[in-house]
Amino acid sequence: MIPNNIKIIPIIIPVKSPLKSVNFYLIKTDHSLLLIDAGMNIDDCWQGLNTTLAKHDFTLQDITHIIITHHHVDHVGLINRIVENYQIPVYSHRFSVPRLRRDPEYLQKRIEFFADLYDKMGCGEAGEKQINYLKNAAKKNTDQSITYELHHIEELSLNEFQIVETPGHAIDQIALYDETGKTLLSGDLLIEHISSNALVEPDEFGNRMKTLVDHEASLKKIQALNIERVYPGHGQVIETPHDLIERRILGIENKANKFLALLEEKSLTASELAQQFYKDTYKKQFSLVMSEIIGHLDYLEHKGKVKKDFENGVWNYFV
Q: Could you report the per-residue pLDDT of 266-288, keeping only the tens digit for each?
């Protein structure tokens, strides 16, 4: 039990991927039972939730609020299953809403954003293939839409927690900070065994966000907090968070310098840089690789270390 009568109950579901596990949490306070994130829409997560509730003498009906740290599918999977039977209010960042609703207008603008982005980054056929994937996914995954009412996290008053906006990995990511207990529920901002990819996304106006710059700022934001334990969205609980935060910040700079060294030799498009650095992984994990490359190029440009020229419809980066 944490000193201010907050009890955090992890639900950790192992998965066969580099993530190692999908984590979500029950939090018992004096007046509420919060569910933080909702895992994946798979039976293992559903059984894990119900088993954990029963172990602590709770049922689904006892949950008073569901809070989503960000809109990714491995954090929201069980919401429809829960809320179709129990009218539990769901809270998220306002930027989550069109994403969780899978709003057709939003999805179309997102596809157009990436089509333009990959074209200007010189991705050619690989970019076109990814756009076709996004179009098919928009049609196929309509059943993943959150159909129930969504409330803005700003409307929720939590005496025990501060809501901290931590964009970077996702535009809508939040963390929950308990100052008294010196704990943070971090979503995917901080994970022990892997660094979070700052996924390139458009903002609410369709402009590209400098997501790696945002991610670094979010890490520095939580670095300034008095935290001794972090409950992440994947992997094990983090017992020495400040050491890990420092390593992650240094990791961003170190990787940026590797890309910078290649650009010192000659100017390159983002696609050329990605293929030169990641080799075969460029095609195997195209969207993640391009997020990594574009994020670091934005970061280097933000730091004043690279510039770019627009030639024949494509951006060329140089030192």
A: 999 999 999 999 999 999 999 99
Cα separation of 49 and 72, whole Å? 18
In sequence order, the 6+-apart residues with CB closer than 8 A to the CB of 183 are 2, 8, 177, 227, 228, 229, 230, 231
State which CATH number among 2.60.120, 1.10.10, 2.50.20, 2.60.40 fits the domain covering 104-140+250-318.
Answer: 1.10.10
E strands in the chain? 7-14, 21-28, 33-36, 65-67, 90-92, 150-152, 162-165, 174-178, 183-187, 229-232, 307-311, 314-318
Distance CA 69, CA 171 (A): 11
Residues 6+ positions from 99 with CB-CB distance below 8 Å: 71, 106, 172
Tokens standing for 163?
A: 């809501």
Tens digit of each residue's pLDDT (9 = 90 or more) over 165-202: 999 999 999 999 999 999 999 999 999 999 999 999 99
pTM of the predicted model over 0.90: yes
The domain limits of the chain are 7-102+146-239, 104-140+250-318
Query: Any residues with CB less than 8 A from the CB of 69 and at least 6 apart, and which?
Result: 36, 37, 75, 173, 174, 175, 176, 185, 186, 187, 188, 233
> Is residue 105 a contact partner of residue 127, using CB atoms and an 8 Å limit?
no
DSSP string covering 20-45: -EEEEEEEE-SS-EEEE----SSHHH
CA distance 291 to 280: 16
CA 96 to chain CA centroid, nearest Å: 11
End-to-end CA distance of the chain: 53
Helix axes 286-302, 211-223, angle to 10 degrees: 70
pLDDT band (50, 70, 90) for residue 57: very high
DSSP state of 213: H
As given in the structure block, the two tokens for residue 73 are 């599918």
